[in-house]
């Protein structure tokens, strides 16, 4: 089932309740996507997402997946690829955390790093190797615009995303000539259920807008996509600022966010990619 550029027929979503990923899948179903695998921790939200995609006409299945259990990734993801070629993998899981809490709680900080970086590296390599064997496919890795300049307000989350961003770009270079395309997506602040109540950052966007950018990037076989595109220039300008100036800039994001966000993080766990800098 070889994919037409920008119009894959079979999809695997790692982080099956991610609002960005689901918005992307819905767009692709209106094109020609017909088979969708949603991987995530078993939950009513995951089953609800699968039902909604089935209602749109896609043959949708769920598969248990935990970013914090990399020892199980090979078997779990291997079963998906054993069912047939996968044209597109969307790596969209991650946790935001609560910076003010996590920087005084090393185990919590390590959990964020293990989910957002270690778990993603494991899953990405397994999927990339499977697509290399089948000779085609696209791997879309959601990182974060925050990875471009790690700030005081979210340095735990952003540093893990920065590592994932560098890893994914290197993986893309390693796969050149194999038929496998790796695309890094760097969303800014995205308005989702999880970010409700947080102060939006400049150029805040929506899952639907990011999904459109992903589809357009796939069509171009772009190595990197910013969402929105203006973030590229903003981030470049920010990098040029001396740290003494950067520290004095207004800090939007999760540094002071507690309560409702913390409760949602416990519920979402490692099965989605929703956060101020992510989804």
Could you provide a short overview of the structure?
By secondary structure, the chain is an alpha/beta fold.
Beta strands, count: 7
Shape: globular
Indicate the multimeric state. Answer: single chain
Order of helices and strands: EHEHEHEHHEHEHEHHH
Radius of gyration: 18 Å
Q: Which residues form runs of ≥5 with pLDDT under 50?
A: 252-279
Structural account:
The chain is of the alpha/beta class and 279 residues long. The chain is 44% helix and 14% strand. The chain contains ten helices and seven strands. It has helices at residues 19-29, 44-55, 73-82, 99-102, 106-134, 155-174, 207-220, 231-240, 243-246, 260-268; strands at 10-14, 35-40, 59-64, 88-91, 137-142, 180-187, 224-227. The chain has a seven-stranded parallel beta sheet with strand order 3-2-1-4-5-6-7, with helices on both faces. β1 (10-14), α1 and β2 (35-40) form a beta-alpha-beta unit. α1 (19-29) crosses α7 (207-220). The protein is globular. Mean pLDDT is 84; it is low at 252-279.
Characteristics of this structure?
Decaprenylphospho-beta-D-erythro-pentofuranosid-2 -ulose 2-reductase, 279 residues, NAD(P)-bd_dom_sf, single chain, 7-stranded parallel sheet, SDR_fam, oxidoreductase, disordered C terminus, 44% helix
């Amino acid at each position: 089932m070889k994919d037409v550029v920008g119009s894959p027929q079979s999809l695997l979503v790692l982080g099956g309740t991610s609002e960005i990923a689901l918005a992307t899948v819905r767009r692709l179903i209106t094109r020609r996507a017909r088979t969708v695998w949603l991987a995530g921790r078993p939950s009513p939200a995951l089953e609800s997402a699968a039902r909604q995609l089935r209602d749109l006409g896609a043959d949708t299945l769920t598969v248990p997946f935990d970013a914090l259990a990399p020892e199980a990734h090979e078997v779990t993801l291997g079963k998906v690829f054993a069912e047939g070629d996968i044209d597109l993998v969307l790596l969209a899981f991650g946790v935001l955390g609560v910076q003010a809490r996590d920087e005084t709680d090393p185990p919590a900080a390590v959990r964020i790093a293990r989910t957002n970086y270690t778990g993603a590296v494991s899953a990405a390599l397994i999927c990339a190797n499977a697509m290399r064997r089948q000779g085609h496919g696209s791997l879309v890795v959601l990182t974060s615009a925050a990875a471009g300049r790690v700030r005081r307000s979210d340095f735990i989350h952003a540093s893990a995303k920065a590592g994932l961003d560098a890893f994914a770009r290197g993986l893309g270079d390693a796969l050149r000539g194999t038929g496998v395309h790796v695309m890094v997506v760097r969303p800014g602040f995205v308005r989702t259920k999880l970010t409700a109540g947080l102060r939006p950052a400049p150029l805040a966007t929506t899952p639907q807008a990011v999904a459109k950018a992903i589809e357009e990037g796939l069509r171009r076989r772009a190595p990197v996509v910013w969402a929105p595109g203006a973030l590229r220039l903003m981030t470049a300008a920010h990098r040029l600022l001396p740290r003494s100036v950067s520290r004095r800039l207004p800090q939007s994001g999760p540094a002071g966010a507690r309560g409702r966000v913390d409760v949602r993080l416990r519920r979402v766990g490692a099965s989605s990619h929703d956060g101020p800098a992510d989804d």
